[in-house]
Amino acid sequence: MATNQEISHGRDITWTLRAKQAPEHIFEAWIGTSWVVEVTATGTRDGKPFQATHLFLTSLRTTPKALLQLV
Questions:
Q1: CB-facing half-sphere around the CA of 4: CA atoms within 13 A
Q2: Which tens digit of pLDDT belongs to each residue from 13-45?
């Protein structure tokens, strides 16, 4: 797990990334997949509450902290 806070352009958002190695059935369906990733953003945007969750697969072989910097 990795977190990062972004305060700029009217936003105060905390990004949280959770990653786990792709299970066998996903790895078999999408050859090369190494991580299943969930990125959650919570905070305020233009003074209003904001929350979003994004799910994706990646073939990048790196750490969750490095993945969060890329996202």
A1: 14
A2: 999 999 998 999 998 898 889 889 999 999 999
